[in-house]
What we know:
two-stranded antiparallel ribbon; alpha+beta; 3 helices; 130 residues; EC 1.8.4.12; Met_Sox_Rdtase_MsrB; Metal Binding Protein, Guanine Nucleotide Exchange Factor, Chain A; two-stranded antiparallel sheet; Peptide-methionine (R)-S-oxide reductase; 2 domains; 17% helix
Amino acid sequence: MSAFNLLHLVTKSQPVALRACGLPSGSCRDKKDCKVVFSQEELRKRLTPLQYHVTQEKGTESAFEGEYTHHKAQGIYKCVVCGTPLFKSETKFDSNSGWPSFYDVISPDAIAFNDDFSYGMHRIEISCSQ
Length: 130
């Protein structure tokens, strides 16, 4: 059971030791070791249904239809969930895949690589490490 699922079972009136939940004790001084946690209720309120589906349910938006596929404005692409800066616009390129592609990241610690074996093929999914 993940720490998040365990926390759903605990009510405010039931104190729980942080170590029992797998959370760090004390303050987090090193952001790399302290993941940002949002409740599913908060995320459902804050994100669009598509954003929630993609970020929380391992969904995928349709190829060539995403808001940022043909986006050309200069700036920084941030995680829609936690706001972590991920990519700079000058590293974006057209991979003809139907999804935004970047050849570099702002910080290697900001992203996670996840194997995706769906649809009978092996792909690498890039997501925010938070």
